[in-house]
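Field reference: sequence -> structure
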Amino acid sequence: MRLQGKTIGYLVAQEVEDLEYWVPLMRLREEGAKVISIGLTTQTVHGKHGLEMTPDVSIDEAPKADELDGLVIPGGWAPDKLRRNQKILQLVRDMDKQDKIIAVICHGGWVPISAGIMQGRKAIGSVGIKDDIKNAGGIWVNEAAFREGNMVWGRVVEDIPDFCRELVAALAK
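Structure field:
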C-alpha cells in the first residue's frame, strides 16, 4: 500500500465522467490513500452515464491545500461547473503553489485552465479542449498519460490505466 497516510482531494460535480471518477478513486483507495470527494455541495450528483456520487464534503468544508497530498480532477461535463467556483480555483492555485500533485484527465483540464496555471506547461486531455489548453498558454502533447512537475495528465477514458499508473507513482514519491 504505497499511499498509506496520504490524503487526496477528488473533485466531483454533476455529469462527471463516471469511469474517470470511480476507477482512479478506487485505485487510490486500493493503495491505502484516504480519498475525500469534494463537491460544490454535498448533494448526490449523477455521472454522464447515470452512476451516483455523493461528495464527502462541499468546497466550503474541504481541506485546504496544506492538508492534502494531491488533488484529482476527472472529466465529463463536471469541470465546466467546477471551474465557475472561485474556491475550487483557489484550491487548485494553492495546490500548485505548494507543488502538490494535481491530476487531470479528459475535460478536467478546464479547471487548471480557469485557475490560470497553464502557461508553458505540457498538457493533454480530450481533443475537445486542445484549443483551450493552447489558448491558455499550455503546450499540447498527444500521449495517453504523463507527469510533468507536479501535474499528472490523462487523455480519455481508454487511457485510465495509464493515468492511474502515473498518478499512483507521482503520489508515492
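Note: Residues 123 and 140 are 5 Å apart (CA to CA).
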